[in-house]
Amino acid sequence: MPEEDSASALGANSSQLDAGSHSKKSLPPGYNPPLPPHIVGTFSNHGIEPDYGNNATVKINQDRGSIDSPFLGGDVSALFCVMDGHGRAGDKISEFCIMSLHDTLANMEKAFLTDTEGTFKKAYVAVDKSLEQRHPMDAKLSGTSAVTVYLRDSKLWIANAGDSRAVLASGSGKNLRVKNLSNDHNPDTPGEVERLRQCGGLVVPPEEEGLSARVWSTDRSVGLSMARSLGDHKLAQCGVIAEPEITTHDITGDDSIMILASDGIWEFITSEEACAIVARHPDDATAACRALIYTATDRWREEEGPYRDDITAIVVYMKPLLEHLQEAGAIAEVPASPGAGNTTSPPGAVPSGSPHELPHIQSRSSDSASGGGKSGKKGDFRRRRLSTMGGGAQEAQRKQALEAHGRGAAPVGANPKSQRKRRPSISPDMDPTGQQIEPR
């Protein structure tokens, strides 16, 4: 298919896109996502940082991405989420929060379906509160951004806290129109800066072009490049909040591409360019996601030399997704064959043994150092968007206070007698061995 005509195929029937089997070949063994990988593609790519000799080495991946479908409210439903951890324990914070958010929303099902916007806000705050109780030392100086999109029938609800972003493209080809579904929460953003200053936060403008404004604690021991996040509880005293901003979108027949990504994508790629890159791969969302991440890694190398942020992206082809969910729902409504029994499941539940009952893909997790230089020289180690800087808890104290994540623990608001069979599918790492440095 000629590249200039590629985006027009986004409206094709999803059954015609089953030829995207090459996307399955690029997935890691054992990864069984709840949605076809040619319709919804996702990867997480660890960052790199220089060693003492200024050579690039693998850093701990603090990003997380997740897909959960169906997710409450019937068959035509899904939950997509990207989190970008930061600080010394950012990987543990993002891991805890992304798993807890799925469970917390599922256990608030009735309220979520009747008051989606209000319940979304309550769920973020509840996860943040649970984080404070379970990992008090980690959450004091580490945190995570969180952008979540909930799809139900013909509507999207977007919850965002921080600088990860969701975008939507409509149309195709040269007529591709792009809009941001979420707003970045920078410390100097109107509406955010006023709250931070009223709470005693010191908002400092960017030190140079390309860098971010920061909000500092009153003693200037901790700085953050976001006005909202989960965690970062020392800066919560200065107006940094976990409550997300909620936006909505009514899906139209012209909507074609949705992307959720951490700022590892958005640092050097605009929303419009990201959608244009994805549109070049109309029959394979997994290939499109890989191309988007590769492009971002190239930009990081050009701009930052031996430093690259973690990068996570979810690419969704809207029309094929809706068709797939509607077809799957229609099949699910067919009466069971004689002798199969007549047991029923609540809305959104998945029978045990179903293809949607996913194994959890464990991402690598351990400590990472915080801090870093600010030199503007190309190739120097610059943590452009690193969250926490300055004073932190001593390592001995952090390890003493650290608790095991405990996947079997009851989530916020959970009924201990009930256990969810559905688990979110976590975005696989593009380099699970941790060996690859160059993107190609």
Brief summary:
By secondary structure, the protein is an alpha+beta fold.
Verbal overview:
With 440 residues, the protein is of the alpha+beta class. It has one domain (3-28, 37-331): Phosphatase 2c, domain 1 (4-Layer Sandwich). It has 12 helices and 17 strands. The protein has helices spanning 22-25, 90-106, 109-114, 116-134, 136-141, 192-198, 233-236, 263-266, 271-279, 285-304, 318-332, 395-401, and strands at 40-45, 48-50, 56-58, 63-68, 77-86, 143-152, 155-161, 165-170, 177-180, 202-204, 214-216, 223-224, 230-231, 245-250, 255-261, 311-317, 425-426. The strands form 4 sheets. Strands 4, 5, 6, 7, 13, 14 and 17 form a 7-stranded antiparallel β-sheet that branches. A 5-stranded antiparallel β-sheet has the order 1-16-15-8-9. A 3-stranded antiparallel β-sheet has the order 10-11-12, covered by helices on one side. The longest helix has 20 residues, at 285-304. The radius of gyration is 21 Å and the shape is globular. The two termini are 24 Å apart. Mean pLDDT is 78; it is low at 1-20 and 336-421.
CATH class: Alpha Beta
- Give the proportion of residues in helices: 25-40%
Number of domains: 1
SS-based class: alpha+beta
Distance between the termini: 24 Å
Major beta-sheet overview: 7 strands, antiparallel
Total number of helices:
12
State the CATH superfamily name.
PPM-type phosphatase domain
Beta-strand content estimate: 15-25%
**H and E string:** HEEEEEHHHHEEEEHEEEEHEEHHHEHHE
Radius of gyration: 21 Å
The total count of strands amounts to 17
Q: Which fold does the CATH topology refer to?
A: Phosphatase 2c, domain 1
**Overall residue-averaged pLDDT value:** 78
Assign an overall shape. Answer: globular
Proper CATH architecture: 4-Layer Sandwich
| Low-confidence segments | 1-20, 336-421
